[in-house]
Amino acid sequence: MKMSEYVRQHPLLIVIEALRGLPSYLGVALVVSLTQGGGSMGQMAGVFLAAFGALLLMNMLFSALGWLYFYYRYDYGHIHIRKGIVFKSERSIKRERVQSINVYTNILQRAVGLATMQIKTAGTEETEVNLRALSLAEVESIRIHLKGGAENWEDGEPEENVLAIEKLEGRNLWLAGATSGRFLILFSVIAFLASQIFAYMPDTFLNIVFAELVEIPLEFLAITLVALLILSYVVSVVLFVIQYARFRVERYQDRLEISWGILKQNHVSIGLHRIQALTVQEGLIRQPLGLSSLFLEVAGGGSEGQEQISMLHPLLRFKDINRFLGNVLPEYEIPGKLAFLPSRARIRYIIRATVPTAIVAGALWHTANDAGIGFGYVSLLLLVPALVLALSRHANGATSLDDRQLTLRFRDINRYHVLIKRTHLQSFTLNADPIQRYKDLRTVNAPVLSSPSAKYFQLKDVDATEALRIWRWYSKTS
Amino acid sequence: MEIAVSLQEIRQRLRLENEPKERIDPRAWKVWTINGSFNFLILMGLALAFNNYAVGILFITEFHGMLAYAVALLYAPYGMAVAPWLAMRFWRYEVREEELETQHGIFIIRRHLIPMIRVQHVDTEHGPLMRYFGLATLYVTTAATRFPIPALPKERAEELRGEISALARVSDEDV
Known about the structure:
Helices cover about 40% and strands about 30% of the residues of chain A. Chain A is an alpha+beta fold. In chain A, helix 6 crosses helix 9 and helix 7 packs across helix 9. Chain B has helices spanning about 1-15, 25-55, 60-90, 130, 155-170, and strands at about 20-25, 90-95, 100-105, 110-115, 120-125, 135-140, 145-155.
């Protein structure tokens, strides 16, 4: 294979790039046709098609130019990019600067046997190079060339040992979808769309519908609503399963390789040295079932990086986490012993949650009274969930220390365990307001690196001696 | 007598234990007081403008105008006396070979512990007022956060900058 010459990507890139913006063209064309289309339906359709065609053509042209003027070249340890029509730019990336190489394929790319390769580097701007149309063989070849020591391999890649493999399959995958809690988002989207349709119906038609609506019994409406809920639930579960099917984590000596998806396939590799913290999230629906999902805080990489990049596992039994970690990431462990928040902190949690709620409830009551609605006092019922949340937050707040790892447990709505190695803590902060000082309580703050910027984990009202113990554990001198 | 003892105890409890050793320059007090006075003047100006132009429009009454003055006047003792006094009282720092410790706050006291190996760079800055008093602010930056130590005598700030960056360079084996 020749490596010393600059080559273009696959010409199908033009089509892929142009089609990427398809939904937005539809939207723009719709807006144009609605505002400029004049009165009749036919005219509107004509304008719509013309606008859509023009946009598509324009983007094809731009994509074609982009393809024409984008070259890449690679050899052992380097990849070079050369691009630009008027302003030319050249960029070389050294192997040492590469933070991660991720490969994605969507359904369109897979139909033609191409893939997107994303090469991430450390830094503040232009942190990633995206090659959107490479054949799978080319992807593999680039990956090998950018790997350490590749130039010494006589023929191809030496066998590398997979230390452990973990998968998410069958029943568990469906369970993950069923408990993902996404259906509420989907339901609101469907409800929003349904409400928008009304705006585009002719008035006379609406009048007839409303006249009929009065006749329709309430039960029918309720049933429709429930049916809509169930529908969005089922759709959300199926979508989740499609998104995370074939989920797989592989542990190598120096990195994790995570892959998932059917329609859009994702393959992410994360160097171990980039992992800054591990978060265990127990969602509101999942916690009672003893289920949780695992996320990684990963340093470096661009801000465009996808959210899922930090997913380590979409669904694990909480009891199983330590077995899973022992296999895949033995550096981290869920601690057995926790130091809970002292009971004198409870009142502070209650005040923190209920006072703002009481103010909102009071305001609601007041406006309801002003508007002449009688039962504004119902808003005071908001205080009940606020109180429950406060008590639960207090009961779930905890810290734990072992030789190398600090664990913070806290709840916002979901419950989190955050596991941080001592060497990944960037600094450590204790806060105390006068009342906390009087009551011997402290707020602990633990900043870690993450992408795109740092993350601060905080636990309020920790016992002062416990906080001091963490301080001493982190300090090198005391 | 009983009360005196418990007052003592309360004062004790309102401090954090093991405070870092070094205080910042007492001239900081003056700088903060002057800053507070400027803020007070700005607030008064805003209140004046509010009374002249906004009162009478929509639902804004003269009562609201008085309220604006009251806020500005209430700020005066806080910004010019209480805040500088408390800030001065709580500001502490300590540079050790392995780590840097700072403490500051007015009502909420914050205590930071920054290991030298996490320090990315150190720089000093001084505004016109600080410069007039011969003071400078030292900033210690980690990959996640920037920590200031304000109002150090200029020479001391330079000295510390050199010291910390030398200590920070000693061990940068891991990210």
